[in-house]
Automatic annotation (TrEMBL), chains A, B:
Damage-control phosphatase ARMT1-like metal-binding domain mapped to chain residues: 5-277
Species assigned in the record: Candidatus Omnitrophus magneticus
Source superkingdom: Bacteria
InterPro entries per the UniProt record, alphabetical: ARMT-1-like_metal-bd_sf (IPR036075), ARMT1-like_metal-bd (IPR002791), PH1575-like (IPR014444)
Protein's UniProt name: Uncharacterized conserved protein UCP006593
Length: 283, 283
């Protein structure tokens, strides 16, 4: 999915919100806005919005000297989710369909996203995701594919959210699946890295690799050889979040996308409304 | 109230939304975004956000050749409000406090605003404004001032909204006040001009003047001599909408501001929440 004209305003919003988190002064933030403004003509319409992120966040890093702006917030998100984890695992086990319950939790977790300008209330979100209808709900296709296949590549998204993914992943492990999880190469926004996966203990239950991706999304041909091997050989690929959707939605191989549509541009591309929850198999 | 860092993203949003209304192609809109981007460094932080509008909308006019982009939407807004008008006037007359009821309608009308990216439902808005508490409610001060004073300068805001203002103005006329209404010098966004005032028949019941303002707000010292005379001599000045608030909030003379806080930046300046309704005397 390529950049929409609407994305440009969002880049300016991201600069202001992220500069604030990075502790930049108003004067520095203003300089950042000027720099971004001057670069607008050179941003191609043939890339995904996600691919602009390293430039936007890189600019803030360069001006503030802060190379892991979301470190504290990521840790907080992971801790908050870990606190909720034991009860959510019990609720899942007690539910009529633990696989579906854990999938709903994985969607709920997707709201923890500092890259999309908005606030969130995770407990309210969990509650909502349990009662809300999926707008696109390819759950039957997914369960059929799970029955047939063995190897799953699970492309992770944000800190905090991965704790919820872990509940879903544990359900998939109960079905004797072999799962590899992919994270980003280095810190970008609140996306997960190997460090986050280790922090929540995900690496104790499945293999976790870096996709090699420096953007908050996944462009397979630009990823590491190891990632590409898993990507092409996996029976099932599960992609979490908008950044991965933006970059993987035009791929040739079948992919299951799980996310909440948090921006109008993505919602329009999907053909859903803002706030809708999606489990969609593409291709 | 000066520009906030958050305003810059809004300028880009306005370009995209307005270019669409003006019928610009995606390619032209992209060129507009590039032009705006390049101009960012030259936008001073010492002006009000409203003062950037002539540049933003002028850019769109220049690229599309359309010098009254909102003409059709303004006419629609006026027509829609005129359809609601007879019943609203009856409701007002029947109410316990017609002045307050008509004031609430004037606030409800303020939601008709194409300059603030959002959609609106006017009937829902009217309903809401009848039940919602004002966050700042200087109604007692206003009624005291009305008792004491005779001359009112009423600075209008948007098409459609002025029909609701007319109900409030008629209540003020019943109190034997002398009212002069001020509109913008020429079309800018959906702000009212002499043409709109004449279309709804406002000029039949009060004197309507152009403020001489080319921006969607009012900077008295840059307005016409006629406006400045009324402005300085009026016993009461009533200012509708955010654009007028942004430009008049630091003025020395007492002014009554009536509006709904439709953007975070204005809400922060006022010290209220987004969506709050305000009747505030400043100075």
């Amino acid at each position: 999915m390529n950049i929409y004209l609407e994305c440009f305003s969002c880049f300016f919003k991201q600069i202001v919100e992220t500069a604030k988190i990075a502790g930049a002064s108003p004067e520095t933030t203003r300089e950042l806005l000027n720099e971004l403004g001057k670069s607008i003509p050179s941003i191609s319409m043939d890339i995904t919005p996600t691919e602009v992120s390293p430039y936007v966040y890189g600019l803030i890093e360069r001006y503030t000297g802060n190379t892991d702006i979301y470190k504290t917030l990521k840790k907080k998100s992971n801790q908050l989710a870990l606190e909720l984890y034991p009860n959510l695992e019990i609720d899942t086990a007690k539910s009529a369909n633990p696989l579906l319950t854990s999938l709903r939790l994985a969607v709920a977790g997707n709201v923890i996203d500092y890259g999309v300008p908005s606030s969130f209330d995770i407990e309210k979100e969990i509650e909502e995701c349990f009662h809300k209808e999926f707008t696109i709900f390819d759950f039957e296709l997914l369960t059929t594919d799970i029955k047939k296949g063995k190897n799953i590549l699970y492309i992770l998204d944000n800190a905090g959210e991965i704790v919820f993914d872990m509940i879903f992943i544990k359900e998939l492990l109960k079905l004797k699946k072999e799962i590899v999880c992919a994270v980003r190469e280095k810190p970008i926004i609140n996306d997960v890295t190997l460090e986050d996966a280790a922090y929540i203990g995900l690496d104790k239950i499945v293999k976790v690799i870096s996709s090699g991706s420096p953007i908050p999304g996944t462009i397979p041909k630009k990823c590491s050889d190891e990632f590409q091997q898993y990507y092409h050989n996996a029976d099932i690929v599960i992609s979490k979040g908008q950044g991965n959707y933006e970059t993987l939605s035009n791929e040739k191989r079948p992919i299951y996308f799980i996310f909440k549509a948090k921006c109008q541009v993505v919602a329009r591309h999907v053909g859903c409304n803002l706030g809708d929850i999606i489990l969609m198999r593409k291709n």
